[in-house]
Amino acid sequence: MLVGCIDFGDPQPNKPDGDENVVLGGASSGGAGSGGASDGGTGATAGAEETIVTIANLAFSPREVTIEAGGTVRWLMEDVGFFHFLVEGAPDAPATYEPLFDTPRLDPGEDFTYTFKRPGEYTYYCSNHVSTMSDAKVTVE
Ligand SMILES: [Cu+2]
Q1: Which helix (H) or strand (E) holds 111?
Q2: 102 touches 125 (CB < 8 A)
Q3: pLDDT, greater one: 4 or 54
Q4: Do residues 53 and 61 make contact, with C-beta atoms less than 8 angstroms apart?
């Protein structure tokens, strides 16, 4: 970490009052220009990280991942001969629980991404293979 030399700007030199020609903060605030935030394109956004979880042999690999808040997990479905549904939460969650994600059917070659905005521990499972695919977790720091 760089320490020091943080220059918050000199205190404004005290000008005499009555100077009415003060320019108020350059009115041309055309700052936020092309902010096309959510195009799924080439995504070279600084700080955006993507963590890969592969689904094969009725298992998630790695089964647990840790990411930073704002990071994205991409599940790559490579389990030939099966299909899966990824659901956040636990299989025994109450029916009123609303999972963060509940995917459509994922077939081999497909993928699914989810961006975790808030820190926490998020378990998830496959609702089609609850007995074997129910103890995976994403930890968001
Ligand atoms: Cu499954």
Answers
A1: strand 111-115
A2: no
A3: 54
A4: yes
Band of residue 44 on the pLDDT scale cut at 50, 70, 90: very low
CA of 49 to the centre of ligand 1 (A): 25
Question: What SS3 class is residue 99?
Answer: coil
In this structure, is the dihedral angle defined by the CA atoms of residues 8, 11, 17 and 20, taken in order, positive or negative?
negative
- What CATH number should be reported for the domain whose range is 18-140? 2.60.40.420
Q: Check residues 35 and 109 and name the one with the higher pLDDT.
A: 109
Task: Kindly report whether the global pTM for this prediction surpasses the value 0.70.
Answer: no
Question: From the CA of 63, how far away is ligand 1's center (Å)?
Answer: 14
Distance 60 CA to ligand 1 centre (A): 10
Residue 54 alpha carbon to ligand 1 centre in Å: 12
